[in-house]
Amino acid sequence: MNVLLIPPYSIVFIIALAFFLTLITNIISKKKIDYEKMREYQKVIKEYTDLQKEFLRTGDKKLEKKLEKIKPKYKTAQSEITKMSFTPMVYTLIPIMIIFILLGGFYSEIPFVRLPFSLPYIMGYFHGRSAFGDDVLGYFGTYVLASFFFSTIIQKIMKTSPTQ
């Protein structure tokens, strides 16, 4: 385990962890979310918001009546999408929190990546009382960046992106 505390092994471990957690989360999402229904709901929401923008721009009374007519459908679509989005979180939130609490004990004061620029407000928020500078990513920042990267790729491959 000590070898995982030393770069580059620590970085490889966190990136591999990001890949596997992202993959598992997407597999759960694929099993628990009906993406066809979700896309239908998104069309309803888009139609409503487009009509709303047009109404605000023109003030057309016909559009106002149409908005009132489809508002219940819009509200239902919004609540269903919210429900669908949170379903996978029920299965993944607690295990991921436990993993990061455990990782914090090992990696909290190990710098992972030095950025070529400073991010004072963002890094100040994430580092808390850490001795890291504003241009250093710790394990969590490295995980987040790797997770965003893998998430984009895995969602395209598995067709779990809500906007496909």
What number is the mean pLDDT? 89
Name the beta content range: under 5%
Secondary structural class: mainly alpha
Q: How many individual helices?
A: 5
| Overall number of structural domains | 1
Query: Mind telling me the C-alpha Rg?
Result: 21 Å
Overall shape: it is elongated
Low-confidence stretches: none
N-to-C terminal Cα separation, in Å? 41 Å
Strand order of the largest sheet: 1-2
What's the count of strands? 2
State the order of secondary-structure elements, H for helix, E for strand.
Answer: HHHEHEH
Helical residue percent band: over 70%
Major sheet: size, sense and barrel closure? Answer: 2 strands, antiparallel
Describe the structure.
- The chain has helices at residues 9-32, 35-58, 61-107, 120-127, 139-158; strands spanning 113-114, 136-137.
- It has 164 residues and is an all-alpha fold.
- The protein has one domain (2-158).
